[in-house]
């Protein structure tokens, strides 16, 4: 329907006029790589999750500042390293594990609530006379170290037998008004990274670990309807500062090996 009388046509609000011109998201097709160069730790590097959006911001009439970019939260984390019949070490997010919160910020820990502030965000300072077009992008992957030996012992004797990881994230493309904190969710992506590495500690270094699954990750999912951002995804602590390394022996009480930074 066109406009017969201009008076009947309400101008679209600025908020309705921010346009996502295109959105690409993927997880690299390469499998997780395993590095056995160290006699102390096994390292692995997962494929990258990537998200890129081209955004159009209409002219900003007022003296307003809008930042558009990526915010990410972890919704679920299982990260278990099994040491034969001795027990397992586990990276845990206690509040998430105990369902006290539904998500935790995965910010870089500096630029809350943003995932980062290099390619991840763009700021438009009003007043502007014409459209602003720009691209914001982010990527994420895991590159941890897991000790060959039981983490609570002084011995480096290899006893690691298995690594399992299953983590889920929600990633939002968001516009935030810096003065009023008004937050507009433009796109919502969900993605997951799973991993199972089998380890034979009897074998020589360099031949111990085998990637079992999955060789290719499931592709990220762009939601048809945006999800709101849970409060904990916007504030401290972030996942890196909140995580705890536990040792959970087959017999006996769990031990905190590395306490949270936060």
From TrEMBL:
It comes from the Eukaryota. The gene is fam78ab. This is Protein FAM78A. It comes from Gouania willdenowi. InterPro entries: FAM78 (IPR029638).
């Amino acid at each position: 329907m066109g406009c017969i009388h201009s008076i009947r046509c309400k101008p679209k609000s600025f908020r309705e006029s921010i346009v996502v011109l295109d959105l690409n998201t993927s997880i690299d097709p390469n499998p997780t790589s395993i590095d056995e160069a160290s006699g102390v730790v096994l390292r692995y590097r997962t494929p990258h999750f990537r998200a890129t959006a081209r955004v159009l911001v209409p002219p900003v009439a007022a003296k307003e500042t809008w930042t558009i970019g990526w915010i990410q939260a972890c919704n679920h984390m299982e990260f278990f390293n099994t040491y034969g019949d001795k027990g397992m070490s586990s990276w845990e997010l206690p509040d998430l594990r105990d369902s006290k919160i539904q998500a935790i910020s995965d910010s870089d820990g500096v630029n809350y609530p943003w995932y980062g502030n290099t390619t991840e965000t763009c700021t438009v300072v009003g007043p502007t006379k014409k459209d602003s077009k720009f691209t914001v992008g982010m990527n994420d992957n895991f590159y941890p170290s897991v000790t060959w030996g039981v983490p609570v012992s002084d011995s480096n004797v290899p006893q690691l037998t298995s690594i399992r990881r299953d983590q889920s994230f929600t990633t939002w493309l968001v516009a935030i008004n810096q003065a009023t904190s008004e937050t507009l969710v433009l796109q919502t992506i969900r993605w997951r990274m799973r991993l199972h590495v089998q380890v034979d500690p009897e074998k020589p270094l360099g031949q111990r670990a085998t990637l079992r699954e999955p060789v290719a990750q499931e592709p990220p999912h762009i939601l048809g309807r945006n999800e709101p951002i849970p409060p904990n995804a916007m504030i401290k602590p972030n996942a890196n500062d909140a995580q705890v390394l536990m040792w959970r022996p087959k017999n006996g009480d769990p031990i905190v090996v590395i306490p949270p930074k936060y």
